[in-house]
Amino acid sequence: MEQDIGEKLQFITRKLELAFGCPVREKASDLLEVLIRTILSQNTNDRNRDRAYENLRQQFSTWQQVMQAPVEAISSAIRAAGLSNQKGKRIKEILQWIHSNFGTLDISEICQWPPQQVIETFCRLPGIGIKTISVVLLFGCGHDIFPVDTHIHRISKRVGLITSTTSAEKAHQILGKLIPPGKAYSLHLNLLQLGRTICLARNPLCAKCPIGTVCNFGQKLAK
């Protein structure tokens, strides 16, 4: 079973790189920026996330200022992201936890830790799940870690990489060990592109899909 999924993932990776290109890794981003942006992205779209993040940084020029600000001020700054009261409280608590445990708001040392240690350490914090910390490891540290977001979770079910009842958390465990080595970054970004443009949540454009020949969902529709 794992061999079949692994082979399908290799095929999907190749097809998506032919369709969308092979993304070139950008310089690793500031870890706290990646972390806070990912928290803000929960239950909203990229546009609202970016508006909230930019407003937060306009209101507070340093992470130290964010940490010391009242929760109400943080929540007001990130209102565009939705669930601002919850996210504002979590952001402040996470920054306080980081400062207490690292003695600074610089967490760059985690890139030298084993990825599983990073996951286990940060997933204990409210507001940080496996997807959030996987995004930090992929984009902030440059690790070959595969985050499963809403788009990738949906596509993985439709294609048949996971079952229809597999949770996003479980999908990380299943897919993470089967992604072709060195291809987590490319496959993650290309699946996002596929989910945003073709494999839509509603009315997917299956006729245009570059991986339609191996998609269980698409094959059923074609019958």
Describe the structure.
There is one protein chain. 61% of the residues lie in helices and 0% in strands. The chain is mainly α and 223 residues long. It folds into 2 domains: 2-24 and 147-222, Orthogonal Bundle (Endonuclease Iii, domain 2); 31-140, Hypothetical protein, domain 2 (Endonuclease III, domain 1, Orthogonal Bundle). Helix 1 packs across helix 11, helix 5 packs across helix 6 (84-102) and helix 9 (150-159) packs across helix 11. The radius of gyration is 19 Å and the shape is globular. 36% of the residues are buried. The mean pLDDT is 94.
Short description:
The chain is built from twelve helices and no strands. It has 223 residues and is mainly α.
Show the helix and strand layout:
Elements: H1 2-20, H2 31-41, H3 46-59, H4 63-68, H5 71-77, H6 84-102, H7 115-122, H8 130-140, H9 150-159, H10 168-176, H11 184-197, H12 216-222
Helix pairs in contact: 1-11, 2-3, 2-8, 5-6, 7-8, 9-11
Provide tags for this entry.
2 domains; mainly alpha; Endonuclease III, domain 1; Endonuclease Iii, domain 2; 223 residues
